[in-house]
Specification:
About 80% of the residues lie in helices and about 0% in strands. The longest helix is centred in the middle third of the chain and has 65 residues.
């Protein structure tokens, strides 16, 4: 008769499998979270820059209108 080897077959989740899963999840989070943070930071900064650029454009337009009004007033003053 052949001897049967007493092998212990593990069914289900083992401790080493849990350790590998936790390590894998930690590695994925470690690699992706900084990228997500930086993307959000860049997005917020670009929105703020766009807001200030809109203000600058408005002020430049207002400045040109005021310059035209001033030139008009000066022109009227020299005609009299």
């Amino acid at each position: 008769m052949a001897k049967k080897l007493n092998k212990k077959e593990e069914n289900g989740v083992t401790g080493s499998m849990i350790t590998i899963m936790i390590f894998s999840i930690s590695l994925v989070l470690l690699l992706t979270l900084p990228n997500i943070y930086l993307d959000n930071k860049i997005y917020k900064e670009s929105r703020e820059i766009a807001h200030y650029q809109k203000i600058v454009d408005t002020l430049q337009e207002e400045q040109s209108i005021i310059k035209h009004k001033l030139e008009d007033i000066q022109y009227r003053g020299t005609r009299r």
